[in-house]
């Protein structure tokens, strides 16, 4: 199976040998001939019926052609052919493996997967680039996206909630380049992230209070750093009585909330007509009576609408931004606003940003694949035409004498400044006066928070 690959000491398994590929290709041609004879009847068969058909035909094929392979090798080829006819070929097992986060294919013979944040090459391969392209088109078929020389780049949401990006010739020089991002069917909850060490209990309590107190939060980080998962978890603290509207280029968010309206932008047709951007959706969302707006990723002119929404009664909104630090996140907002044609002065833009954003949560992926909150920074206002911030927590791991790295978030001893968190500050001061520790409040939908 493709997701359980083992190696002998001197050679790969038969399923990853050239002999396997040659026999499978010949058997596939034989099966296609038989399928043509069956005609439309084959299209009505269940997967189980196709599996039985392949088993019978493989036994006949091997016996008549005197192919020197044993029973287990016949079964391996038959299984691969069933996946070829009824599924997604060599990557079917990877698509169904819950541990796989990303599948990256750089041409027919170069496949990588990411598990738990670690990227590794695996000995899974396609017969050739034509074979890879057939599988990709089979994946794209249910979502109606076209991939050909006149439209050589596709970015789309899969029916199971994942995302696929494909680039083919003439843009790609090494054959089809396929990037598949998978998402959990059951989104991570705050307790899950706390349990796997993404953040500590004190930060968890602050997140709960900030969301319930309707603070505006930006989640900043790099690619595959866990921004979407963190946004899903933060949304768990939104009270059930509120209406949440999510806006994304490719729908990835899966909020654990009873009243969510999900909107997705549209790239438009081949002639460029029919485009609906995130900016268009944000403008329309303001007419949909949202209590909170969540933007999957801010990357263009929609930054202006988002800032206006946050400044005009839609407190508690959240978004993600690609940036390497909280300060870079603020610079990126300014840059995007400039590209979008912001007409005011630099000072008025910075004032809008400072008034709109309450917290920037920086998340990162470490070299060992683990995702960790790197810092929690509060935006406190404007000082000398510079957006003022204060860092509340910083990730500073410690090494034990045995060489083990332990997670630690250094509190800088500063209480949140925002008036929205006045009640939280009082509870924090009371807990410090009585020398008790924070406790993470896991529930979070009754309008209260725990310290």
From TrEMBL:
InterPro entries (alphabetical): P-loop_NTPase, T2SS/T4SS_dom, T4SS_GSP_E_ATPase
Gene3D superfamilies: 3.30.450.380, P-loop containing nucleotide triphosphate hydrolases
Coiled coil: none
Domain Bacterial type II secretion system protein E as annotated: residue spans: 85-365
Family annotation (Pfam families): T2SSE
Molecular function per GO: ATP hydrolysis activity
Matches recorded under PANTHER family: TWITCHING MOTILITY PROTEIN PILT, TYPE II_IV SECRETION SYSTEM ATPASE
Family, similarity comment: Belongs to the GSP E family.
Protein name as annotated: CpaF family protein
Organism: Paraburkholderia acidisoli
């Amino acid at each position: 199976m493709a997701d359980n690959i083992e190696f002998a000491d001197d050679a790969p398994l038969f399923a990853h040998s050239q002999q396997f590929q040659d026999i499978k290709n010949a058997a596939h041609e034989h099966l296609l001939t038989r399928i043509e004879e069956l005609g439309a009847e084959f299209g009505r068969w269940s997967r189980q019926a196709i599996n039985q058909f392949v088993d019978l035909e493989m036994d006949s094929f091997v016996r008549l052609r005197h192919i020197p392979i044993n029973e287990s090798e016949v079964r391996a080829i038959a299984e691969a052919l069933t996946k070829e006819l009824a599924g997604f070929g060599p990557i079917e097992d990877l698509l169904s493996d819950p541990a796989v986060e990303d599948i990256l294919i750089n041409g027919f013979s170069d496949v990588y997967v990411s598990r738990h944040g670690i990227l590794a090459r695996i000995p899974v391969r396609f017969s050739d680039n034509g074979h890879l392209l057939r599988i990709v088109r089979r994946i794209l078929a249910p979502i109606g996206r076209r991939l050909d020389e006149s439209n050589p780049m596709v970015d789309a949401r899969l029916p199971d909630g994942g995302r696929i990006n494909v680039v083919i010739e003439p843009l790609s020089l090494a054959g089809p380049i396929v990037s598949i991002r998978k998402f959990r069917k059951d989104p991570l909850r705050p307790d899950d992230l706390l349990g796997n060490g993404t953040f500590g209990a004190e930060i968890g309590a602050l997140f709960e209070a900030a969301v319930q107190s309707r603070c505006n939060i930006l989640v900043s980080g790099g690619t595959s750093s866990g921004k979407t998962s963190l946004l899903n978890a933060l949304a768990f603290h939104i009270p059930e009585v509120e209406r949440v509207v999510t806006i994304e280029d490719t729908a990835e968010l899966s909020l654990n909330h009873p009243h969510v309206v999900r909107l997705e932008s549209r790239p438009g047709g081949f002639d460029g007509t029919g485009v609906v951007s995130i900016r268009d959706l944000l403008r329309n969302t303001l007419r949909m009576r949202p209590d909170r707006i969540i933007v999957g990723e801010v990357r263009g002119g929609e930054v202006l609408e988002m800032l206006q929404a946050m400044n005009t009664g839609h407190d508690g909104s959240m978004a993600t931004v690609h940036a390497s630090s909280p300060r870079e996140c603020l610079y990126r907002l300014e840059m995007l606003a400039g590209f979008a044609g912001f007409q005011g002065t630099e000072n008025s833009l910075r004032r809008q940003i400072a008034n709109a954003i309450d917290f920037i949560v920086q998340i990162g992926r470490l070299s060992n694949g683990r995702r960790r909150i790197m810092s929690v920074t509060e935006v406190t206002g404007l000082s000398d035409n510079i957006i003022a911030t204060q860092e509340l927590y910083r990730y500073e791991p410690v090494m034990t004498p045995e060489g083990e790295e332990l997670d630690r978030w250094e509190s800088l001893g500063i209480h949140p400044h925002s008036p929205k968190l006045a009640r939280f500050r009082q509870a924090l001061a009371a807990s410090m006066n009585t020398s008790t520790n924070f406790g993470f409040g896991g529930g979070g939908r009754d309008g209260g928070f725990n310290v």
